[in-house]
Amino acid sequence: MKVILPLVSVCLFISPANAQSRRISKAQYEKVFQSAVSKTNAAYPVIFKVTANFIENGKIIRRVTDLNENQSLVHYRLKRTIIASGRRTNKYEVSVGVDKVFCSDDAASWTPSTHECFGPISVYGGREPESVRYSVTAKWLKGKSVKVYRKYSGFGPLGEDEKKDFRETVSTINSRGFFITVVDTEGTLNPRTVTLRRKQSWVTKARIKPVVSPIGRRPA
Questions:
Q1: How far apart are CA 101 and CA 173, in angstroms?
Q2: 87-96 β-sheet, strand order
Q3: 24: which of 12, 28, 158, 220 fits an S-S bond (Cβ 3.0–4.6 Å)?
Q4: How far apart are the two ends of the chain, measured CA to CA in Å?
Q5: How far is Cα 73 from Cα 42, in angstroms, rounded to an integer?
Q6: What is the distance between the alpha carbons of residues 194 and 211, in angstroms, rounded to a whole number?
Q7: What is the CATH T-level fold of the domain 14-116+129-203, as seen in this structure?
Q8: How does pLDDT run across 26-74, given as a tens digit for each residue?
Q9: Could you state, in order of their start, the residue ranges of all structural domains in the chain?
């Protein structure tokens, strides 16, 4: 299963009433985050959706959406939709076992492969932040208690004429320790300018059609 986990302001009908925000340590944050990764990834079948908006001058110039239907770790169905320059393109991938992958541009003609059909939407480099802050806020989401974990990282300029960068990860986790959403926002500072916003969401124990080999049939 493909998970980008370590990118909207969190506008998920979260009520600010009785919100309690507090600073936490890196160790506290990572313990909760890694536990949520483990729990959410194991809750098969799971529908995992990632939407990344690439932004210039306040406008979305490219949007990439991955819709993953994961029956198990090696049995999944993936559709990638790219919208750029007024054009929409789709790519498809089906995995029915280890090294049993099929790729398509139209969901009709399939090519067998021993590896993934396309890479991640975006890739992080290995830069060390100048500063990192961690916090957690207890809130209510649609009448249910959730916790919102925030990691905010500041980076120094890459060059003499470059600006400082920031990266913010906002994770909403339910009372059972499962991810609801993870939203990453990144860009430059002075003034704050967003260049990428990526939202990940999960539906665990979802109902999906069995993932089977697409060769000789057209997936619904």
A1: 32
A2: 14-23, 131-141, 144-155, 165-174, 179-188, 193-203, 46-56, 59-70, 75-84, 87-96, 101-104, 111-113
A3: 28
A4: 20
A5: 8
A6: 38
A7: outer membrane lipoprotein receptor (LolB), chain A (2.50.20)
A8: 999 999 999 999 999 889 999 999 999 999 999 999 999 999 999 998 9
A9: 14-116+129-203
pTM, entire model: 0.84
For CA atoms 212, 204, 6, 169, the dihedral sign is positive
Token output for 192: 């704050």
Phi-psi region of 148 (alpha: psi -120 to 50; beta: other; left: phi over 0): beta
Structure tokens at 99: 């090294």
29 three-class SS: helix
Helices (H) and strands (E) counted in the chain, each on its own, are: 1, 12
The answer, yes or no, to whether residue 215 has pLDDT greater than 90, is no
208 in Cβ contact with 45 (< 8 Å): yes
- Alpha-carbon distance 98 to 181, whole Å? 28
Closest CA to 18 of 147, 202, 185, 198: 147
